[in-house]
Amino acid sequence: MANRSPPDPMYVFRGTGAAINVLRFAPKSTREEGLLLSGSAKGIINLWSLKTKRTVLILDGHNGNGILAADFLPGGKVVSHGRDGYLKSWNCCEGRSEVVNSLSVPFLGFCQFCISPRGNDSNWIVLPSSEQSEINILDLESKKTLFTFKSEEKKSLGMCMCLSLFNNPKTQKPLLAAGYENGQMLLWDVMEEKKLSNITVHSESVLCMDVDVKNLRIVSGSADNKICVSLISSQCAISVDKQIELKNQGISSVKIRKDGKIMATGGWDSRLRIYNWKKLTPLAYLDYHTDTVNAVDFSDDLPEYGQLLAAGGKDARISLWSLYNEKRQAVQ
Q: Which stretches does DSSP call E strand in 11-73?
């Protein structure tokens, strides 16, 4: 890549009329496969067809308040969290856009929920509580609070800024990683509601994170000028492994590709940065966007395209990229 000029996006979605806060590809082998979800600062969720490059469904139920988070659920549903203070589940089967569940929940700052299907039509959803630094896990269907995570240092931690819920690959016990306003990252044992480890990973607020569950590595971005990679030990202790220093401050979004080979970040400087995830060497700097890149996501391996990267931000554009797919050329 060093000897080539950066590629152009394979397609650009326009027409949202507002900053993009959220992007999610539909999981593979579901009825929504081939769709890309976007959530905007105007409270609108668009479902885009990767085949026709057009919107196939619009979800408008947050009264013009910005979308904080949104994701696909099994069975043709979408869940969204807006700045109106509501968590809503949508039935999107056969072109429908019906709200089938609505729950009043707090919203603080810009922290996005994370969601985990637990079987038997149960979905756990993790989001900050109304108390500073506290986190709740709710059952989306019963609307009950299952777990609450409180830290003794809540005043110094500040607000929770980002979350990731995942299973320890060795024990299969659920773990929760959380990044906070003061630059710390905490790791929780979910079932015990117990803090396992905490460490300062950034000098400014932790804005985003993603977890390589197989290798128990966490990548985080911040308002500072570093990308940090941390390790989770067999004793569930977090330690900083490596840091990538940047010329410009502010990483607002980060994602590891599903095959564990590539990592993408979106920055305040409008750049997309692509890295080899294992070695953390830079592969490409993509300079298409004109403002902060708020959201990045990788698709599953799609038959026609391989694994795609989507990026969106304050310029109200969504760029679609095909990068380093083994079955195709290095860059399309």
A: 11-13, 20-25, 35-40, 44-49, 55-60, 67-73
